[in-house]
């Protein structure tokens, strides 16, 4: 595949994050999901001094990247403490709050991010935003237990102080029926418009019975690397 300006930027952002954050003295590293993370693993494979590290995946996709690269695969059960996790995002605001879960991996992504001493985001410039919900209008991804999806949808529409513009069960594209996560759950995408108070939305969603996990990653990342259109990298640090 020929490199577009976006792909060049993604690669540079991923390479910069790996060079700064994954060090030879590290023992365990979390590998996120998404298109930019492909370049994270690509950079790791270029550095023999990182081959001894155990890598924890957040999805089937990242598990394959680790295995196909010949890296050491581990799990959170084996290694509950992670030195650093690098992951992508669907949208990132100026405080480094993020919406994640466009690829339906938000539960495992959050587990691996929270287990890490440092959490770093890599993305392209299109993911930058002043307020979450401005650029990413597909909605906040909400993983739900299948038998509860209708009751959760009803609660989202009727019982929250912040009303959604739209909330729908995510349907598969090349298969009849809903998207099923790696954990066997369904995904609801709830678009609230610009999230001026993402913590309020997160906390109210968390209270709903049948809720599994929410694709709002708040106050977690310490730095984000964005690949720009011209191939440069812009770095945001948490304020």
TrEMBL record:
Q: Which GO terms describe its cellular component?
A: cytoplasm
CDD domains xref list:
RPI_A
Listed GO molecular functions?
A: ribose-5-phosphate isomerase activity
Known pathway: Carbohydrate degradation; pentose phosphate pathway; D-ribose 5-phosphate from D-ribulose 5-phosphate (non-oxidative stage): step 1/1
Per UniProt, the enzyme's principal EC class comes to isomerase
Which processes are annotated in GO (biological process)? D-ribose metabolic process; pentose-phosphate shunt, non-oxidative branch
EC annotation?
Answer: 5.3.1.6
Which UniProt key words apply to this protein?
Answer: Isomerase
What the entry lists under Pfam families is as follows:
Rib_5-P_isom_A
Q: Which reaction does it catalyse?
A: aldehydo-D-ribose 5-phosphate = D-ribulose 5-phosphate
Family statement drawn from the similarity comment of this UniProt entry:
Belongs to the ribose 5-phosphate isomerase family.
Name of this protein: Ribose-5-phosphate isomerase
Task: Report the source organism.
Answer: Rhizopus azygosporus (Rhizopus microsporus var. azygosporus)
Gene this chain is encoded by: RKI1_3
């Amino acid at each position: 595949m020929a490199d577009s300006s976006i792909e060049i930027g993604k690669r540079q952002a991923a390479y910069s994050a790996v060079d700064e954050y994954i060090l030879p003295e590290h023992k365990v590293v979390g590998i996120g999901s998404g298109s930019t993370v492909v370049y994270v693993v690509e950079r790791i494979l270029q550095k023999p001094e990182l081959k001894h590290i155990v890598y924890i995946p957040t999805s089937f996709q990242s598990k394959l990247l680790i295995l196909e690269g010949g890296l050491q695969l581990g799990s959170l059960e084996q290694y509950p403490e992670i030195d650093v996790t690098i992951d992508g995002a669907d949208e990132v605001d100026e405080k480094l709050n993020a919406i994640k879960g466009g690829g339906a991996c938000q539960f495992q992504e959050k587990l691996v991010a929270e287990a890490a001493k440092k959490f770093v985001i890599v993305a392209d410039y299109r993911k930058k935003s002043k307020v979450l919900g401005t650029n990413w209008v597909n909605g906040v991804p909400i993983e739900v237990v299948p038998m509860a999806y209708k009751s959760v949808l009803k609660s989202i529409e009727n019982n929250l102080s912040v009303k959604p513009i739209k909330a729908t069960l995510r349907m598969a594209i090349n298969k009849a029926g809903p998207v099923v996560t790696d954990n066997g759950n369904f995904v609801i995408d709830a678009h609230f418009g610009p999230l001026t108070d993402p913590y309020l939305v997160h906390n109210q969603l968390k209270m709903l019975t049948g809720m599994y996990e929410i694709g709002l990653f708040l106050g977690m990342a310490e730095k984000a690397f964005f690949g720009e259109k011209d191939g440069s990298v812009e770095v945001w640090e948490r304020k």
